[in-house]
Amino acid sequence: MRQFLKLIVRNTLRHKLRTGLTVLGLLIAVLSFGLLQTVVGAWYAGANAAAPDRLVTRNAISLVFPMPLHYRDKIRAVPGVKRVGAANWFGGIYQDPKKFFPQFAVDGAQYFEMYPEYRFVEEEKRAFLRDRRGAVVGRKLADTHGFRVGDTLPLRGTIFPGDWSFTVRAIYDGAEARTDTSQMFFHWDYLNETMKRRVARRADQVGVFVVQIAEPARSAEISQAIDAQFRNSAAETLSETEKAFQLGFVAMTEAIVVGIRVVSFVVVFIILAVMANTMAMTARERLSEYATLKALGFAPGYVAALVLGESLAIALAGGLLGIACTFPVAAWFGTQTGTLFPVLAVSPATVAMQLGCALAVGVAAALLPGRRAARVRIVEGLRAIG
Amino acid sequence: MSPALIEVRNVSKSYRRGGQIVPVLHDLSFEVQRGDFLGLMGPSGSGKSTLLNLLAGIDQPDAGQILVDGVDITGLPESDLADWRAAAVGFVFQFYNLMPVLTAFENVELPLTLTSLSRRERREHVAAALRLVGLADRAQHYPSELSGGQQQRVAIARALVTDPKLIVADEPTGDLDRQSAAEVLSLLEQLNVEFGKTIVMVTHDQRAADRAHAIKYLDKGELSEGADLLERSIR
Amino acid sequence: MKSIPLAYSVRNLWTRKLTTALTAGGMALVVFVFAAVLMLDAGLRQAMVSTGQPDNIVVTRRSSGSEVQSGVERPQAALVESQPEVVTASKETVVLIAQPKRDSGVVSNVTVRGLSPQGIALRPQVRIAAGRMFRAASTEVVVGRSIAQRFAGTGVGERLRFGARDWLVVGVFDADGSAFDSEIWGDVDQMMQSFRRQVYSSVIARLADPATFDALKQRLESDPRLTVDVKRERQFYEEQSAALSGFISILGLTLSVIFSIGAMIGAMITMYAAVAGRTGEIGALRALGFRRRAILAAFLAEALALAALGWALGLAAASLMQLVHISTMNWQSFGELAFSFTLTPKIVLQSLAFAAVMGFAGGVLPALRAARLSIVDALRAA
To answer: In this predicted model, what pLDDT tens digit does every residue of C238-281 receive, in sequence order?
Structure first.
């Protein structure tokens, strides 16, 4: 066994340049694969961070249509509902459209009770609740644009036209790595008052209601109870768990997500071609050595195992290095894309897949050359020198 | 015009081997006359091939001068040497060094692509060269389809297709069986006697040495005449 | 410079068939991804750009990202309509509805457009493919070709329910691959009523003379009674796809570049092995009188030939993608958009250049090594 391993290690080091290049190629492939899977994972981040005790109620036709404010009290009256908070997607522009981040007008006090994963400094939270024009920003957002408590945050409204100005009163941190801290919140009441003055008919309109329920197990039942309240009215509603709501968004860009997943496997095939080529060349050049081993009495299986062992050694080296590189590169990518991907974490499942791919490539690349080496006729192999 | 084709004047050459400097040739001087068929013999590592490389312009001496047909090839830049070799020298190697992916015809044609001859003219020269070595009917064959002796004859055709004055051969029969070796040597002799080519041949093979008209021994970097040469010239 | 015959480089690829196949195959995959991404972007743009007529303009509320987010009050719309440069105008309302897809049942947003007979006339690329056009002032609708294919309940004779009403589908229209293929059309007044709208989403108009656009734009955008953006229809739709297009391009090209490094490494390994296996030949060629540059060129040519082979295979595979149709949510308008892969001559050339760079980058170092060999070393190592 020791001799076997010694042979494998020495053989891989014989052609340092070739082995080095192959390892590098595998590193890049495994890294790319891991990065792509992580990006796809980030797409689902919203759904994964959803809490089981929260529902989202929206206009049944489409998210783009609002609901009347007075629905809030009706929803609160539904049995099983603990809290209801209004939220409007604001969609304003900060300096220029490229510096996008989510902005929501929310029922301050109620809303944050429903999101315990947003951690506040109590003083800051109180300061926010006192200031009508106050704003709350997440840690990631604050870091990206350098917002600090006390800064003015100007926004140019699109859905709610005009220029708006807020003061940052609190910065929240996420309880977990996957909590979204790229968002900005301000008071719904302030939005409503301002709209009453500017465009009266747009006042008292809510984008979505976030509903906290007492028993997550009854979410389907309570959702239907809420919707039943508003059937056949001017604005029928659709209530679903927060997770289902988030997944709805992903489903709409499904084609792209599928595309990225497919492409991440293409890279594996590219590197399989490279690896198979390396092993084929190496095995061909060493045919006489394999013949010699067989002449000495080693079984064909041993020779094939040598080829497989070398292939796996190279594949593992490249794979492990690629996995190691995935973490810093994902982190860097996360800082570069700022608020576009709020959560970019490399999951254990991804690492497992990367390792699996590396091993699969190592095995597949060795199949044909290994077979050839095992089958070489001693006489022919010995003749083929140089 | 001096009767000597090659003049070697005080040539020295050494190699770096593992951090040490190994002197191979030391202050060597001799001449090769036009129309000579010279055999270079000596023990392994004596520098025979090194000397051949210097005469053929594929290596440069550390000191001294080499003149071939009046041209001082010492210290010429590589690009000039390349042009000179193309016109002046023909090579025959122990392992033939034909291009496996080119046919016999294309292999022989290779040196002519460095000239400004037209395609038709090249074809004529190649055909003539192949006829001379007796392989006109194998022109379209690849080296893998030819025997060792045939491959060497193609190599000889390649060596003479540009009509060089000098032909250098490094162990031309080293990889051949007796019959093929004899054919190759006869060819070389024919080139020398009929066409006046000057030939310098490095060899271990006594049969090859017998065909040469003169032998020099190289040992520890020093050249000496062969003892049996005197015998032969008497015979 | 006298060069080594090209046959030498090309035939050497043929002798090592497996290696050539694997190396070219790797490059082919990269070219495929590269070309496919470019084709996807081209297809998206084509869907968008072909949506716009050269003499049409689109008037929306200032700074609204799309028609869905825009609101043009009735008096404002009337003002636009009455401008002297305008020949025909259509006041339109655009909303999104949620409909399940045919095969997956997944619910997606579909764009519904209420327009007038003038509006239909403003889109000459639209033809009825099945059934007939909807009647004005009725609750009939027609659906775009892509919607009819993909969404449940959109066949001729079926009823759609939205806005608290039933709408009868009376026809399917073909909008020649433009964005309208992904829309449902109906009467504007019926829609406004049904969705309780007081304002229009946009005004689409045709200009008598397209050159008068700048003057009109200037006048309308500086009029204090109006808060509108005036854009040429082409430009409007181009901007609609900017975010999605940008994302596809950047992601796709980044991936292609990363993948190409893998393929280049493959080419490098192959070429290094080629050089190592043919040192004797290199020595012989140099001895014969070929210069170092000729050796360099011969091995570079071999690498480039590999790349060319990879390019041909990759492009062939990518052109097959033209049979595939994509449908996804457009991030700016939130509506479903259908488009396909489009192969343009520009993409053919771009992918060729990309392959050439891969071949060059992979082959240059080994070729340099071959060229740098001293004749003596090369002959000795043979």
So the answer is: 887 777 787 778 778 888 888 899 899 999 999 999 999 899 99
**For the purposes of burial, counting CB atoms within 10 Å of the CB of B129, is it exposed (0-12), middle (13-18) or buried (19 or more)?**
buried
Residues of A in contact with C196 (CB under 8 A): 234
Interface test with B, best of C15, C292, C379 (most B CBs within 10 A): C379
- Out of A25, A256, A263, closest to residue C328 by CB: A256
Predicted confidence (pLDDT) at residue B127 exceeds the cutoff of 90 = yes
Cβ–Cβ below 8 Å for C280 and B106: no
On whether ipTM exceeds 0.90, the answer is no
- Asked if the model's pLDDT at residue B2 lies above 70, the reply is no
Which of B54, B55, B89, B114 best probes binding to C when mutated, by most C CB atoms within 10 angstroms?
Answer: B114
Handedness of CA A103, A104, A109, A115 (dihedral sign): negative
Return all residues near C28 (Cβ < 8 A) that are at least 6 apart. Answer: C309, C310, C311, C312, C313, C314, C317
CA distances C194 to A168, A203, B31, C161, C188, Å, are 41, 20, 111, 11, 10
Note whether B95 contacts C: Cβ–Cβ < 8 A.
yes
Query: What confidence score (pLDDT) does residue A288 get?
Result: 81
Asked if C108's CB is within 8 angstroms of A274's CB, the reply is: no
What stretch of H or E contains C128?
Answer: strand C127-131
More confident residue, A334 or C12: C12
**For an interface test with C, which of A18, A61, A63, A239 has the most C Cβ atoms less than 10 Å from its Cβ?**
A61
Q: Give the chain B residue nearest C286 (alpha carbons).
A: B82
Question: If residue A237 lies in a helix (H) or strand (E), which one and from where to where?
Answer: strand A237-241
Helix or strand holding residue C377 (H, E): helix C375-381
Beta strands in chain B (DSSP E): 4-17, 20-33, 37-41, 63-68, 71-72, 89-92, 166-170, 198-202, 214-219, 222-225
Nearest CA to CA, how far is A25 from chain C (Å)? 5
Whether C285 has a pLDDT exceeding 80, the answer reads yes
Reading the block at residue C327, the tokens are 């449908």
Give yes or no for a contact between C108 and C99, defined as CB atoms under 8 angstroms apart. yes
Give dist(CA C358, CA C257) in Å, integer: 10
Q: Does residue B18 surpass a pLDDT of 90? A: no
Read off the pLDDT of residues C235-246 as tens digits, 9 standing for 90 and up: 888 887 777 787
What is the torsion angle, in degrees rounded to the nearest 10, for the CA atoms of residue B7, residue B12, residue B15 and residue B20? 170
A197-242 pLDDT tens trace: 888 878 899 999 999 999 988 888 999 999 988 887 778 888 999 9
By the CB < 8 Å criterion, does C250 face chain A? no
- The Cα diameter of chain B in Å comes to 52
Residues of B with CB below 8 A from C283's CB?
Answer: 97
Q: How close C281 comes to chain A (CA, Å)?
A: 14
Contact C291 B82 (CB under 8 A): yes
- Are A189 and A106 contacting, i.e. CB atoms less than 8 angstroms apart? no
Q: What is the mean pLDDT of residues A36-48?
A: 82
Average pLDDT, chain C: 89
Q: Which residue has the tokens 């958009």?
A: C337
- Tokens 């022109």, residue located: B139
Query: Which tokens hold the place of B100?
Result: 């496996």
Cα torsion A295, A301, A305, A307: sign: positive
Residues C251-263 as b or e (16 or more Cβ within 10 Å = b): bbbebbebbbbbb
- Select the residue of C255, C327, C334 nearest A64 (Cβ to Cβ): C334
Q: Calculate how close chain A gets to C26, using CA atoms only, in Å.
A: 5
What is the band of B226 on the pLDDT scale with cuts at 50, 70, 90?
Answer: low
Please name the residues in contact with B11: beta carbons below 8 A apart, sequence gap of 6 or more.
Answer: B25, B27, B28, B29, B54, B61, B63, B64, B65, B66
Tens of pLDDT along C102-140? 888 777 778 999 999 999 999 999 999 999 999 989 999
